[in-house]
Amino acid sequence: LALAMSIFSEVPQAPPVAVFKLTADFREDSHPQKVNLGVGAYRTDDSQPWVLPVVKKVERLIVEDSSLNHEYLPILGLPEFRSAASKVALGEDSAAIKDNRVGGVQALGGTGALRIGAEFLRRWYNGVNNTATPVYVSAPTWENHNAVFADAGFKDIRPYHYWDAAKRGLDLSGFLDDLEKAPEHSIFVLHACAHNPTGTDPSQDEWKKIAEIMKRRNLFVFFDSAYQGFASGSLEKDAWAIRFFVSEGFELLVAQSFSKNFGLYNERVGNLTVVARDNENLTRILSQMEKIVRTTWSNPPSQGARIVGKTLNCPELFAEWKDNVKTMADRVLLMRDQLKAKLQALGTPGTWDHITQQIGMFSFTGLNPKQVEFMIKEKHVYLMASGRINMCGLTTKNIDYVAQSIHEAVTKVQ
Amino acid sequence: TSLSHSRRVLNKGEILWKCCAISWWGGVQMGPPDPILGVTEAFKRDTNPKKMNLGVGAYRDDQGKPYVLNCVRKAEAVIAEKKLDKEYLPIGGLGEFAKACAQLALGADNEVLKSGRNITVQTISGTGSLRIGANFLSRFHGGPRDVYLPKPSWGNHTPIFRDAGMQLKAYRYYDPSTCGFDFKGALEDISKIPEQSVIVLHACAHNPTGVDPRPEQWKEISDLVKKRNLLVFFDMAYQGFASGDIDRDAWAVRHFIEQGHNIVLSQSFAKNMGLYGERVGGFTVVCKDAEEAKRVESQLKILIRPIYSNPPMNGARIATTILNTPELRAMWLEEVHGMANRIIKMREQLVAGLKKEGSSHNWQHVIDQIGMFCFTGLKPEQVERLTKEFSVYMTKDGRISMAGVSSGNVGYLAHGIHAVTK
Question: Which of A239, A303, B197, B352 is the most exposed place for a label (fewest CB within 10 A)?
Answer without folding.
Answer: B352
